[in-house]
Amino acid sequence: MRYGRKHYAHMGATVNDEHVRSLVSYIARGAVPRSEYVFGVEIEHLPIRNGTGAAVDLYSENGVEDFLRALRPRFEPEEETWENGHLLGLRRGKIDVSTEPGAQVETALGPVKSPAEAEELYAQFRTLADPILTELNFDLVPYGYQPRTPHSDVRILPTGRYRVLDEYFGTVGSYGLLMMRCSASTQVSIDFSSEADSVRKMRLGSAAGPLLGWFFRNSPYFESGPSPLPLMRQEMWERTDPQRTGLTPGLFSDGFGWEDYAVNMLSTPLMVADMGGTPEHEGREKVFTVWHENAADIYPDRALNDYEMAHILSTHFNDVRLKQFLEFRHWDSLPIDRVRRLMEIVESLFCDDAQLDRLQHLLGGVREVDVLAAKADIQANGAQARPYGRSLEQWCELLGIRESDETDAFCYKLTNDGYA
Fold first, then answer.
1. Which CATH architecture does the domain made up of 17-409 adopt?
2. What is the domain partition of the chain in residue ranges?
3. What does pTM read for this prediction?
């Protein structure tokens, strides 16, 4: 460790060494033996009105909050999430239902031991949810982007965090407001056993991300028309705020480790400050926009607590996000059968030592510039792309992807009568 020196991850930005120590310790607590590995998966759904394909929001009659209130009796009352008088989240065992900025409904499942267990939990959720959705005349659809409603017609949820993010993203980058209101994703989380193991998985996951993004793409629509790019989710996030999206800065540099990751997280302007877990700030505004200050400017000169560290990590959206687990963030929202297949591939590639070594052999020499080139190649050339010097057909075989895993035809097709 190199504590005691000043770190300049961004020009003119310094970080508090005590903050670095606490964040490294926080990440280290997530390391577990291989025998204890588990998974998590988050599936965001777009609420779509039957018969029209229009977005359904939180506030309207027969809308998303009506859905949550009807679902509420089957969930645990002590686990409910409320803000400004609105019900925004529910939990029941390993099933967590929450709402995203544009009223997307997220189902977080886990921790689970296998993809099959995740699929079973999701079936339990749909057994509870589907009769209510039928009565309310809308559905929860796995697309990467709203099919019929432009972002300007989607209202943001009434939370302090989303209000701040809306203000911030409205002035930074190109796609932040669209991403918040109209996009939906599938995210898969895995464990790591050590610092070296986590860094290797971050590098390989970042390199393989655009490949798996191609095979599991599911954004046929964008702003009421056809999607202009094959990996529209990738395009949106990379142009939302380059300070905190895309590849983790320095990830492919020799010697990169948890301290470097912590310094990057702490030196980036904070975007949104959440003081709900900071005792020194009782009586002051809990959530507010941060334009230029980083964590050292906002939080006290002491070790950060878990609430503060979890919040700081949540303000970055890199392709692979390191918390007390690794979160792969590449994929559009997918139907559950394809989520299970995606989890099976992630498990095979990243949770089996022999397979991870094989992936290291395939992608271990990749540099940051190579990953950026692979992303651009797929966006520009689609099925004819040759990322890392191989055809997509070759990568399909090398990554253990079946022909049926490819999504030349998207998972659902929108018709005047609904989805087929």
1. 2-Layer Sandwich (3.30)
2. 17-409
3. 0.93
